[in-house]
Specification:
Helices cover 41% and strands 16% of the residues. The chain is an alpha+beta fold. Strand 1 and strand 2 form a beta hairpin.
Length: 528
């Protein structure tokens, strides 16, 4: 019996081997030899190989779709090819709304994001759930927005939406988490005051000078005296007023729009109510939403500090004094927004060393007229901050404290010359650089997500990149001169940081900026 079974197994094995050899011979006979492949001209497909499918260049079919749900929540998305998606919640929140609260809540919310919720015990559990889908998460706050976002595989979108709804609407905010946030913020503030590059502090100071004690001038970083005063009740009260559907946009990139709408309904409407409705003893009902419009005031903020001993490793950093001069520009809803962006690119600037080499903004005005002419000028950079109801155009410059008068004179001259003659070459270069920057930045999915969320939050719809590209192309030298003249009519905002004995007074800077048709005022000689 055993012998008979063994012979059957051997026969079956032989037949299987014969079939395998036969199929291999058939496959080899169907594949052309190397000699045959070489003989086939490149204009014809290779025999026995599948015909390749080529991508067709056609019109862009993807568009941003927007849906407003019954409770006021807005859902916006744009579908893109790929296995990963970026999705998040953009809120109309931020430090400009903290007038009735201790300043610093927005920075606390950044540190408390993606911690424990009613469904997740701690941050580790959330991160482990995201890792199952190859995901990452982040929370970023600014003066007028708060963004919770995550990127993950498309198949994990339901889990990601579940996490987002939990961290936005149902955070637990334990005492341990508050203590950890306080520690992290204390370290961050200490680091800001020690770092060689004081740019974040200077941006705080110039906003405080431009919008004195209102909206955009309120501190973005938590003041040291407020770190221990922000409690669970204060945070929950803020969330109750600002984390509401009417102030939210759920945005996604690389996602089918209807699927995102269905998931938003499931996780942001149909599920349990926000945690502050269940714990009303944590709410201070006397607080309400601030609807103030920003008021540009102008003014000066100075911080005297000895920066002579700042060093980084074995190479000491030269002693510098920093000055920022700003003027009111316009909001991102203003028709002059794009001319101001072109003006910002035309001014450009940077540090005395550019890691990008020639071409990285080194033909902008602040390079050609300032950094290339004055060896003592360490940095000169133009910035344009645009918000919903105002904007701030400023130039940050730094040099040795003994050169502060000369520095201010040079920067004021550049401000005044904005309203003067503009060469066609520099205008075309600025427009091309702005168009290039716009298109290259929007190649990244997270940037597209933020663009969708911010535009829809501000206006209810999204203008496509091609619209801005075309509008940039339409800008003329007269447009740039006009917005520069408009800007020069307002009072300046000035921020000084470092050893400031040689800094001209505010009245001298204000008088020097009084212009007519782009010409320096007679009182400009006060600096000398």
């Amino acid at each position: 019996m055993a012998t008979r079974m063994a012979s059957r197994v051997i026969r079956a094995g032989r037949q299987k081997l014969i079939r395998a050899k036969s199929s291999r011979r058939e496959f080899c006979s169907s594949v052309p030899s190397s000699a045959d492949i070489v003989s086939v001209p490149l204009s014809k497909p290779v025999p026995s190989f599948p015909v390749p499918k080529y991508a067709n260049v056609g019109a862009q079919t993807d568009e941003t779709k927007v849906t407003v749900l019954e409770n006021g929540l807005t859902v916006a998305s744009e579908n893109k090819f790929g296995q990963f998606c970026t999705v998040g919640v953009v809120l109309n929140s931020g430090s400009r709304y903290e007038v009735a609260y201790p300043s610093g809540i927005s920075q606390f919310l950044e540190k408390l994001a993606f911690c424990s919720t009613t469904l997740f015990e701690d941050r580790d559990q959330i991160l482990q759930e995201l890792e199952r889908h190859g995901g990452i998460c982040d929370c970023q706050g600014s003066r007028d927005t708060l963004i919770y976002a995550a990127s993950a595989e498309i198949s994990g979108l339901p889990s990601v939406m579940n996490i987002l709804s939990e961290v936005v609407l149902r955070p637990r905010i334990t005492q341990d988490e508050l203590d950890q946030a306080r520690q992290a913020i204390s370290f961050e503030l200490e680091n800001l005051n020690m770092r060689p590059d004081p740019e974040p502090l200077l941006m705080e100071m110039i906003h405080a000078a431009a919008y004195k004690q209102n909206t955009l001038g309120l501190p973005k970083f938590c003041p040291t005296e407020n770190i221990n005063s922000i409690s669970q009740k204060i945070v929950y009260t803020y969330l109750k007023n600002f984390h509401i559907p009417q102030r939210m946009v759920v945005a996604g990139v690389g996602i089918d729009h209807q699927w995102l709408v269905d998931l938003a309904k499931e996780h942001f409407i149909d599920r349990r109510m926000p945690v502050w409705t269940e714990n009303k003893h944590f709410i201070d009902d006397s607080k309400s939403i601030d609807t103030s419009v920003s008021q540009y005031t102008g003014g000066i903020v100075q911080v005297e500090k000895d920066l002579s001993d700042v060093s980084l490793g074995p190479t000491p950093i030269p002693e510098l004094a920093h000055v920022v001069i700003g003027l009111e520009s316009c909001s991102h809803k203003d028709p002059d927004f794009i001319p101001f962006c072109v003006l910002n690119m035309l001014m450009g600037g940077g540090g005395s060393f550019s890691a990008g080499g020639p071409g990285k903004g080194m033909y902008t005005r602040l390079y050609l007229n300032v950094l290339n002419r004055y060896h003592w000028m360490y940095n000169a950079t133009a910035y344009n901050h645009a918000y919903e109801d105002s904007g701030l155009f400023c130039i940050h410059a730094s040099a040795h404290p003994s050169k502060l008068k000369d520095l201010v004179e040079v920067i004021v001259r550049e401000f005044v010359s904005m309203a003067g003659k503009i060469h066609s070459d520099e205008l075309q270069r600025a427009k091309r650089q702005l168009q290039s920057m716009l298109m290259m930045n929007l190649e990244a999915r997270p940037v597209v997500f933020e663009d969708i969320g911010r535009q829809v939050l501000a206006s209810g719809h999204r203008k496509q990149p091609q619209y801005f590209y075309d509008e940039i192309e339409k800008i003329t030298a007269n447009d740039v001169r006009r917005v520069a003249s408009r800007m020069l009519r307002c009072k300046p905002a000035v921020a000084g940081y470092g050893t400031l004995q040689q800094l001209p007074s505010y009245s001298e800077i204000e008088a020097a900026l009084l212009t007519t048709d782009g010409k320096l005022s007679k009182r400009f000689s006060l600096f000398r």
